[in-house]
Amino acid sequence: MSDRPALPLVFDEPRGRKKPPRHLADLTPAERAEAVAELGLPAFRAGQLSRHYFTRLTDDPAEMTDLPAAGREELVAALLPPLMTPVHTLEADGGTTRKTLWRLGDGSLVESVLMRYPDRVTMCVSSQAGCGMACPFCATGQGGLQRNMSTAEIVEQVLAGARSLARDEVPGGPGRVSNVVFMGMGEPLANYKAVIGAVRRLTDPGPDGLGMSARGVTVSTVGLVPRMRQLADEGIPVTLALSLHAPDDELRNELVPINTRWTVGEAVDAAAHYFQVTGRRVSIEYALIRDINDHGWRADLLGDVLLAAGPRGWVHVNLIPLNPTPGSKWTASDPRDEREFVRRLEAKGVPTTVRDTRGREIDGACGQLAATAT
Ligand code: SAH
What we know:
Layout: H1 29-38, H2 44-55, H3 72-79, E1 84-92, E2 97-104, E3 109-116, E4 121-124, E5 128-130, E6 145-148, H4 151-166, E7 179-182, H5 192-203, E8 217-221, H6 225-232, E9 239-243, H7 249-255, H8 264-278, E10 282-288, H9 296-309, E11 315-321, H10 335-347, E12 352-354
Parallel strand pairs: 4-7, 7-8, 8-9, 9-10, 10-11, 11-12
Antiparallel strand pairs: 1-2, 2-3, 3-4, 5-6
Helix pairs in contact: 1-2, 4-5, 6-8, 9-10
Bound molecules: S-adenosyl-L-homocysteine.
């Protein structure tokens, strides 16, 4: 059947890059105690430092008055080294949507987006600088992979948002991050270890971590089947999102090139397996692209493929009107076709929502993150 060349799998980062420095957020509580002991300090200093970082949301040594002044700067320099600097922040929706461009220590650029809603604050974070998955409709996919991000670099994007909310810098009063979605730059499951570390830091109770609910964390994937199965066994009930975008292999091979490695059937089965193991309803992401994947028959086929894979209620579909990316000939579906797509899925009993496209005008919506410094 498939005489296509095997897709080069970009799971390993390019060699020769400067590694990000070790940071408290890379380490488990036990590893933090060891790191502090190596500096000749009692282990409980690690807990104090964790409390400053994750609970008090400060990385400024001047505010850490419970740490002895002698050696405080050194401790902070050793365990809370700067990881990234903001290049700029763009705002939309009256300041409640904020996209930040970050420069990492080696010069790589990544973006994160904070979205405040009446009832929640969602941070959309990057897990890699660039992306190796090459989906043709996604801006990030066009530039290839620069490198994997470290656990602490991933976590620090959330902490930066948490700090600005705590300091009342986002309209709506002081607040907290309630949701994190791995829907920024990169394929999270291609940087598996660092992403799991980040999920643990976000969900570990304070002062070891940020104390978020695992349900509030969504890991979105192109469908790296072995990693999806591994994620099911981690024992952290995060929400899994599968970026499907087509119910048939012929079209999905074009839209999500990794499909030539793991088919629609295999990816959907792994998603259903995730539901069986965790009890968490899986989200199927489907960017509606005019005249490409928005046909009525594809809505019907999508419904059939999903219903065949698991028990009723295992899945819901999240339709994303395509966000235009520079140079692409594709656009969002006609609203009538979108409504018909929703109607057909719901007629089959598949719950379906249409995602709002916040931050479009600041290129901060799904698939628009390209991280150029200009
Ligand atoms: N690599 C992960 C996370 C990346 S982006 C993944 O693919 O799931 C999060 C979602 O945005 C994915 O569903 C992705 O397919 C979608 N997306 C990418 N480009 C888009 C675009 N131009 N318009 C709408 N959605 C897009």
